[in-house]
Design brief:
heterodimer, A: alpha/beta, TIM Barrel, nine-stranded parallel beta sheet, 12 helices, about 15% strand, globular, B: alpha/beta, Rossmann fold, 2 domains, six-stranded mixed beta sheet, four-stranded antiparallel beta sheet
């Protein structure tokens, strides 16, 4: 059983929702972001989404784009992102790490080489925003053969006809994008998200986790109430960008996690 | 292997100097059947977009396929091309250029005489008619030099559609006349400061807008790049250039040209000229990229094919300027219209198959060609086709007098006079 599957099975057995935190690898520098990642499980984070910096993050809002720029300016690369994951794995062998980013840095490194290195670094899953099911041969299928989960985004524009195709090669969990838009922009509305999550949940056995547009502990609780888990990214990296100390960022993460964990727990 | 007469020499030469991955025996029987059902030209192209956009792109593809075989659609295009754009554009024998260079006969395809001053409107009309068929009410576009933005704002004004144009903040500054034109035409111009504030960032922000406003918005892409079906669709709309040139050359010279030359940023004017000639083995095809300060290790250029390698950006796999880590680099060119780190995927494929040759010319060479054209032909070219002309000036003197070159004069230079004055250290006004 993969770390992702084990974690969700454990949460389910305890009637708990998953709290997923996104941070950008190398933001504002390697050492600080490693300290932050190491603090996430203690702050209540069930799954870590590790952002892979990219110059042209088309699906992201300003908060994550700026985080990526800070990381790149500090010398972050794909290789160092994997080094960061590997350093985390030395002290934590159970918290799943999902690498989230865009295809070009992976394409540039070479898919086969990247998969071997990612697996060795202790990465459990991939979310690659610009690889829809139509491009499954590129990375999704090779990743699954390597034993890495490929987590697909489903969106408000994914209609009933398309949903089976989106779910077909997905593993780990399904990431429902709560809004049509970019990360950190509009606010996710639980009343609109609930029927969509139910629709996706009826078509798959995988957990459905909701992200984009979740910024506060209250929203975290409200969205976790209608899904199997909730993701927060922009609100966290915004605080990193403001230069807040690691302890303060982790305190904020804890408040978000507690929001999600209040549901049904 | 299919050996194309007249092509093999060039193929061999370019293969030696570049890093190629496609073996020679992949040269197809026809160069005009692409893309395949997955939007691929060989390994290039594709649909590398987020899931939110995927259903829209599939919709667009279906609508375009319907329109393509609809006589009514093309009748509307023909009517507007004739009465609104002013097509056909002339094929002009550049007598003095020919005499001064003392070699090949030089013809200019005068697409700078189109309404709005460039080839861009050929494509915009097609996309906007399609948008109206799809019931979209809001049009967004990215623009570099501002020519595509102006063309989009123009056609939106004509049809009463809301128009939002994303433009890098740096370009807003250096292309002020076009910004003002867009505003006069009723468009909202959004200066893009995210990233480095250039054309690629404008495209990122246009994609962000599209993903946010999926229901009512149509993204009118200005070049032969982006996710399938854009590269094929824009090429088809721009192919009017090559179809006209072919017929006009028959009339003028009773035969096909020997060499086609066009400037390449994303590559839409070039694709439009080249496409109807791709299966004519006697016609040599040359695309001219922006060499900026020179294609060197410092990457102060925009020559994706000459100085880049394959990658994935903005929905397609193509040659890109990128660093070792796959991070996208900023291009550099005096021409805002060529200042893009990628190139249309079909060009990448023509490059790797060897069907077309791609070269780079520097800012200084383009500026010299700009002045030469003004003085010899009374035509102020845009800086983009000035790059193509610079290459014509390099090769024409070496060619025999019966060799025919057809170059696409894809835009006029009114928008560039301030840039040129600055670059040449000339005073505007006061004579001199």
């Amino acid at each position: 059983m993969t770390r992702i599957d084990a974690r969700f099975a454990h949460l389910k057995a305890n009637g708990r929702k998953a709290f997923v935190a996104y941070i950008m690898a190398g933001d504002p520098d390697f050492a600080t972001s490693l300290e932050l990642v190491r603090g996430l499980p203690g702050a209540g984070v069930d799954v870590i989404e590790l952002g892979l910096p990219f110059t042209d993050p088309m699906a992201d809002g300003p908060a994550i784009q700026l985080a990526g720029q800070r990381a790149l300016d500090a010398g972050m690369t794909l290789r160092k992102t994997l080094d960061l994951a590997a350093a985390f794995r030395k002290t934590d062998d159970s918290t799943p790490i999902v690498l989230m980013g865009y295809y070009n840095p992976i394409h540039s490194r070479g898919v086969d080489r990247f998969l071997v290195e990612a697996k060795a670094a202790g990465i459990d899953g991939l979310i690659v925003v610009d690889l829809p099911p139509e491009e499954d041969d590129e990375l999704c299928l090779p990743a699954r053969r390597t034993g890495l989960s490929f987590i697909r985004l489903a969106t408000p524009t994914t209609d009933a006809k398309r949903l089976p195709r989106v779910l077909q090669n997905t593993s780990g969990f399904v990431y429902y994008v709560s809004i049509t838009g970019i990360t950190g922009a509009a606010e996710a509305r639980p009343a609109e998200v609930a029927p969509e999550v139910a629709r996706i949940g009826a078509a798959t056995d995988l957990p459905v986790v909701v992200g984009f547009g979740v910024n506060t502990p209250e929203q975290s609780e409200a969205i976790a109430g209608v899904a199997d888990g909730v993701v927060v990214g922009s609100a966290i990296v915004r605080r990193v960008g403001e230069g807040r100390p690691v302890a303060e960022v982790l305190e904020f993460v804890r408040s978000l996690a507690e929001g999600a964990h209040r549901v049904g727990g | 292997m299919v050996c194309i007469p007249g092509l093999c020499v060039r193929v061999r030469r370019t293969r030696c100097s570049r890093n190629r991955e496609t073996p020679m025996n992949d040269i197809p029987n026809s160069f005009t059947t692409g893309p395949d059902e997955n939007g691929r030209f060989g390994k290039f192209g594709g649909r590398f977009v987020s899931e939110t956009l995927m259903p829209l792109i599939l919709d667009l593809e279906a609508e375009y396929e319907k329109a393509k075989s609809d006589k009514g659609f093309w009748a509307e295009m023909e009517h507007l091309w004739t009465h609104y754009v002013g097509r056909p554009s002339p094929l002009y024998f550049a007598e003095r250029l020919t005499a001064r260079l003392g070699g090949a006969r030089i013809y200019l395809k005068r697409d700078e005489l189109n309404h709005t001053g460039a080839h861009k409107i050929n494509n915009v009309l097609g996309q906007i008619i399609l948008a109206r068929r799809m019931g979209k009410t809001r049009i967004i576009a990215e623009t570099g030099a501002g020519q595509h933005g102006v063309a989009t704002a123009t056609v939106c004004a004509k049809f009463g559609l809301k128009c939002v144009v994303y433009m890098g903040a740096h370009d807003v500054e250096r292309q002020a006349p076009n910004v003002f034109r867009m505003k006069l035409l009723g468009a909202e111009v959004v200066p893009v400061t995210s990233g480095r504030g250039t054309l690629k960032d404008a495209m990122n922000d246009a994609l962000r807008d599209w993903v946010t406003n999926v229901r009512d918005t149509f993204y009118c892409i200005g070049t032969v790049a982006g996710p399938h079906p854009y590269p094929a669709m824009v090429r088809d709309f721009q192919s009017i250039i090559g179809r006209e040139a072919r017929a006009q050359m028959q009339e003028a010279e009773g035969r096909l040209p020997d060499t086609l030359i066009a400037a390449i940023g994303g590559g839409s004017n070039a694709m439009g000229l080249f496409f109807p000639f791709l299966d004519e083995p006697s016609v040599a095809i040359i695309g001219v990229e922006a060499g900026g300060k020179g294609v060197n290790a410092k990457m102060e250029h925009c020559a994706s094919l000459t100085g880049g390698r394959p990658g994935v950006l903005h929905g397609n796999r193509t040659y890109l300027l990128q660093d070792e880590d796959g991070q996208i680099l900023e291009g550099f060119s005096i021409s805002a219209g060529l200042d893009y780190p990628g190139i249309g995927p079909e060009h990448s494929w023509l490059h790797e198959t060897g069907r077309a040759e791609y070269v780079a010319v520097t800012d200084d060479e383009a500026l010299a060609a700009f002045r030469f054209c003004c003085e010899q032909e009374g035509i102020i070219p845009a800086l983009e086709p000035a790059h193509a002309l610079a290459h014509v000036m390099k090769i024409a003197p070496e060619l025999p007098g019966d060799h025919i070159i057809c170059m696409n004069m894809c835009g006029r230079g009114d928008k560039d006079i301030f840039t040129v004055a600055r670059a040449l250290g000339l005073e505007m006004g006061e004579g001199g």
